[in-house]
Design brief:
With about 325 residues, the protein is an alpha/beta fold. The chain has one domain (about 20-335): Metallo-beta-lactamase, Chain A, CATH 3.60.15. It has helices spanning about 1-15, 55-65, 80-85, 90-95, 110-125, 205-210, 235-245, 260-265, and strands spanning about 20-25, 35, 40-45, 75, 100, 130, 135-140, 145-150, 155, 185-190, 195-200, 225, 245-250, 275-280, 295, 310-315, 320-325, 330-335. The chain has a nine-stranded mixed beta sheet with strand order 6-5-4-3-2-1-16-17-18, covered by helices on one side. Strands 7, 8, 9, 10, 11, 12, 13, 14 and 15 form a nine-stranded mixed beta sheet that branches. Helix 7 (about 235-245) links the parallel strand 12 (about 225) and strand 13. The chain is globular, with a radius of gyration of 19 Å.
Length: about 325
């Protein structure tokens, strides 16, 4: 009996010690983020570009191999732009995808958007498919993934522990409304114990404000996956003031995203510690980029890009470690 109880205890301790691992995969200014729950189930947020000799699909498959997983349990497409959904058919040909999630039909039309959405529908085929709405929870064992925004709508009630007034809203003006797919992005918060990560896809400035003004419906987070590749049409001062991230990870490209103003807004946040980038942002220059050690691909020559990734490993107590695959630099962050 004692041996049996000891076995149960050791199993429980082993499970508790497992981390949630997140791979921020370099898709040259697109997006592909692989999340592996402690249970072993997977969530992939976006697939990067299609074409390019299977570049992005191959990089996702390589990350999955590193993580020791052989399928994508849930694929969440934030919105239907080529840099987020273009790689779906190529990835599906390399790695099984069990369940597809999106905001509903593509709202853009024309030869290219129509072809993109048609290839996506053809790929999901007879697989499970869910149209996500604000409040929907993706049923991944071991972590909580809740949709905050989808198809232009947002949650109406604050998440647990959130709801405080946001004083920075008064000094944050709205921008012109956007009619592309970006404001329809599926945005979500990923929680593992005390650890929280925010990923809003390419959600635009005004749609972000709906989540944090006049009251902060999200609460604070530990890690912020920068909206819209770190462009200045997302990531307002009101958002950053509300979520107060310790760390930001930016899925930019060498010449895409990484706007200097967005970079400075994050650096000025009171709880902010570190910024990690997938690429050196050429437009920002040295003054508006982090030190090279925190950049996975610091070069300024596309032909020499190695597709280095950034990995996040989070523990249920809220502590986490970020690693740059290029130089194996790892930095740990304590729980709250």
């Amino acid at each position: 009996m004692r041996v049996f109880l000891l076995g149960l205890l050791l199993a429980a301790v082993s499970l508790a010690a497992k981390s949630m691992d997140v791979y921020f995969i370099d898709t040259e200014g697109g997006k592909a983020t692989l999340i592996v729950s402690p249970s072993g189930q997977t969530l992939l947020i976006d697939t990067g570009y299609g074409g390019n000799h299977l570049r992005d699909a191959n990089r996702i498959v390589a990350a999955a191999k590193l993580a020791g997983v052989k399928q994508i349990d849930y694929l969440l497409i934030t919105h239907f732009h080529e840099d987020h959904a273009g790689g779906v058919p190529q990835l599906a040909a390399r790695l099984p995808i069990k369940h597809f999630i999106d905001h509903g039909p593509n709202t853009e039309s024309g030869p290219a958007p129509d072809a993109l959405y048609r290839s996506y529908k053809d790929t999901w085929g007879a697989s499970e498919h869910t149209v996500a709405a604000p409040g929907y929870k993706i049923p991944i064992k071991g972590i909580d993934v809740e949709v905050l925004a989808a198809n232009g709508e947002a949650i109406k009630s604050p998440l647990k522990g959130a709801g405080a007034a946001n004083p920075v809203c008064a000094s944050t003006d709205k921008k012109a409304d956007v009619t592309t797919e970006n404001p329809r992005s599926v945005g979500s918060v990923i929680t593992f114990g005390k650890f929280r990560m925010l990923d809003l896809g390419d959600l635009t400035w005004n749609k972000e404000l709906a989540l944090i003004c006049p009251n902060n419906l999200i609460g604070t987070v530990d890690v912020y996956a920068t909206s819209h590749h770190g462009n200045d049409d997302s990531g307002s001062p009101a958002l950053i003031s509300a979520i107060q991230p310790k760390v930001a990870i930016m899925n930019n490209g060498m010449t895409k995203g990484g706007a200097a103003s967005a970079w400075r807004t994050l650096r000025g946040s009171p709880r902010f510690v570190d910024f990690w980038q997938l690429h050196f942002a050429v437009a920002g220059g040295k003054a508006n980029n982090v030190d090279d050690q925190f950049i996975a691909n610091p070069g300024t020559d596309d032909s020499k890009d190695q597709g280095n990734w950034i990995k996040l490993s989070a523990q249920s107590d809220g502590s986490f470690t970020v690693t740059n695959s290029r130089n194996n630099l790892s930095k740990s962050y304590k729980e709250r």
